[in-house]
Amino acid sequence: MRVSVIAGAVVATVGLVALASAWFGWSFQRAAMLAPVIVVCAGAVAGLLILWGKAAWANVTKPSDAPRSVLGPDGLEDSTLSSRPGASARGGDRP
Predict the structure, then answer these.
(1) Which portions of the chain are predicted below pLDDT 70?
(2) For 72, what's the count of Cα atoms within 13 Å in the CB-facing half-sphere?
(3) Residue 21, CB half-sphere, CA atoms under 13 Å: how many?
């Protein structure tokens, strides 16, 4: 493993331990004893945030298969995007 990766992991771990000790009012030694739990919890939270972010991004950017309602220039719904061929935009089956 590269030295820079190990150094980054050590810095991140010490930072998480310091943050947890300040947040919960623990001594640094007590938080250091719980460092594995703190790191695993932080990783789980980061993983959930990434997963939810990807799902939200996919939901926002993916075009929907559902029929869309579009208002035309006269304020009435445009019948060209109707889900059934030949169906009127105002309801019913008028051509």
Answers:
(1) 64, 66-95
(2) 10
(3) 15
Q: Which two tokens stand for residue 81?
A: 């995007």
Q: Where exactly are the structural domains of the chain?
A: 3-61
Distance CA 70, CA 68 (A): 6
CA 60 to CA 4: how far, in whole Å? 37
Dump pLDDT digits (tens) for 9-33.
999 999 999 999 999 999 999 999 9
Please state the pTM of the whole predicted model.
0.59
Per-residue confidence (pLDDT) for residue 84, from 0 to 100: 55
CA–CA distances in Å: residue 21 to residues 8, 14, 30, 47, 61: 20, 10, 8, 22, 40
* Separation of first and last alpha carbons in the chain: 71
The token pair at 65 is: 């298969």
